[in-house]
Description:
By secondary structure, the protein is of the alpha+beta class. The protein has helices spanning 5-12, 102-114, 175-185, 222-235, 249-269, 277-297, 305-316, 355-358, 365-385, 394-422, 430-454, 460-466, and strands at residues 25-37, 44-54, 61-71, 82-88, 91-97, 120-123, 126-130, 143-145, 153-157, 161-165, 194-202, 205-214, 220-221, 273-275, 321-323, 335-338, 341-344. The protein folds into three domains: 5-97; 103-214; 220-480, Aminoglycoside phosphotransferase (APH), C-terminal lobe (Aminoglycoside 3'-phosphotransferase, Chain: A, domain 2).
Amino acid sequence: MHIEPAVLEEYLVRTRWFAGKGRPFRVARMRPIAGLAADAGDVRVAILLLTIEYSDPEGGTEVYQVPLASYDEYIEQIGHAFVGAVEHEGGQRYVFDAVHDRKAMALWLEAFVAAETDGEARVGDLRFRRVPGGEALDPALRASPLSGEQSNSSVRFDDTAIMKIFRKVSPGVNPDIEIHEVLTRGAVESIAALYGWVEIDLDGEVLQLAMLQEFLRTASDGFELATGSVRTLLADPTQSVADSGGDFAGEATRLGEALAQVHEMLRDRFPSERRGPDATAALARAMNERLDHALGVVPELEAQAPRARAAYEAVAALDGIDVQRVHGDLHLGQTLRTSHGWRIVDFEGEPGRPFAERALPDSPWRDVAGMLRSFDYAPGVVQLSRSVPADDGEAEDDLRAARGEQWSHRARVHFLDAYSAAIGVPLLDGADRRLLDAYVADKAVYEAVYEKRNRPTWVRIPLAALAEIGSAETKDAETED
Length: 481
């Protein structure tokens, strides 16, 4: 089956997972790496790797996985995922993104079922691996893709399992699979258990293409839960946060305890060490370099740059830092609230960094800082997205803004107190506080660049946070209510 690059280029810009939208690009290479087909049936699947080449000043290349399902006839039910019609063996085949095709996804499920006995099943060059002790799967489970903005694609198999198909791929062990396997084998409760994954050997290196996990039936997205809490609070801002139905302090406490559990297991199962002053100096230097770059994108950062640099220099003066494996890209959107507690997901790390960099040990305070910033984002997003009633006066607006800040403060304090107590540091000492402040500033600088490029009206959220760098998160949360 041959498909023209132009057909794929036109499809890519219509997907939610292609990161090159808005940039000039071309499909420089199409590489079929594997195929799947039903024993009886007309669906055929080809897995392609597309090398994308950019021609703007930033330049560079990326590799995307695109599994394609083809049929002799046009399938109306998956017309939204139609890629194009191609000539094949003297006839015509209709090609669709296989993620949206129930028959195609059943081929992945069948292979995972076949792997249950020996821990591995092969389909051509593909290896379907299973984690010992995982739940037995029914091959009759029905597949349905999940909607939403994602850098990957996820397919749910009824209420039993969920498969994440990695779109932007790189050679090597994917941290999401690596960490989930270790935590699953360690019976950590604060994650979704890993059932298995798909990989292939290419050019002498392993390429991991997908992972299968436990589907959390009662799960709610952490950020959606938080913004819902803020909306409840702001519906009647005359009440204090603690007395309203929108207080998130209890959930923040439980989330802090869940993160501490995950960090403890990562520290036990992966290398960890104490590094000296050279490491803190290098960390501060990297943060300053990111700020230098950000100033070229977000000139508004200039007013807050001295605060951020002061936080970085405080880190440079430390005599050492404890590092270990961490999540690396933690925020409320990487958490799920279930009836059994919080679950932390998506250990892939920052998508733009090579796997080798994502796997490097880092301070756990980076993850803590990411969550603190997320608690700050929730009321900011609600305030920016809410429609303001005509009869809202300035005093009402000020009260809502104050309540949003109090919500965020309480959530941050309770999360940080719970995390610190769980790791045996009930009160942050000077070194930990300086590390946390610097990581918070670094995250806010990253956010400012992202918002300037994607949602310019939101840049005020991280800018406001930078103005508060150095203030104590550990003061009594009740004092602001």
